[in-house]
Amino acid sequence: MLSVLSGVLAFLDQHAGAISALSTVVLVIITAWYVRLTGKLVVVNQNQLDQSKKAEADARRSEAQSRQQAIMDLFRIAHRLRSVLANLPRDKQRAEQIRRVTMWPETDVEILESLASSLGRPFDLNLLTIIPALRSIREKACEVQAVNRFTCGSRKIDHPEISGVISIVIDGIESARRQR
Question: Does the pLDDT of residue 176 top 60, yes or no?
């Protein structure tokens, strides 16, 4: 066993230059292979980064478009509500007019609630205070419209309350429009 080991050492000693050169060539080949793989990884990572940036920009653009559409929907509904509210009577002498006003659909108020939560400040604060008033106005106006004109039954409909709520709603809508 010792003779084999001394034979191997003698061989290595005798061919040290060639073994060193061969080892260097192998290391150069391995290093070149690693350089090539690293280059491919850099390209793949750069492509992923570019795709990520593009996706982020697309998401931001889509979010901005969605927000803009939501604001447009908000003002479209607000305009429709404002038109209806403008047709509601503001004094007792014209209270009978409420029977001829076509009220907004309840879905408009539901859409407003959805828009309030999606748009955030300042819309959410304004809309969340206006929505209950809109529901109240719609409910009271629909009650008035449903009651027979000549017999109010035992239920008294307090028209000044409606006028007061109308004023609050109009002020709220005006305030929301000024903040835009």
Answer: no
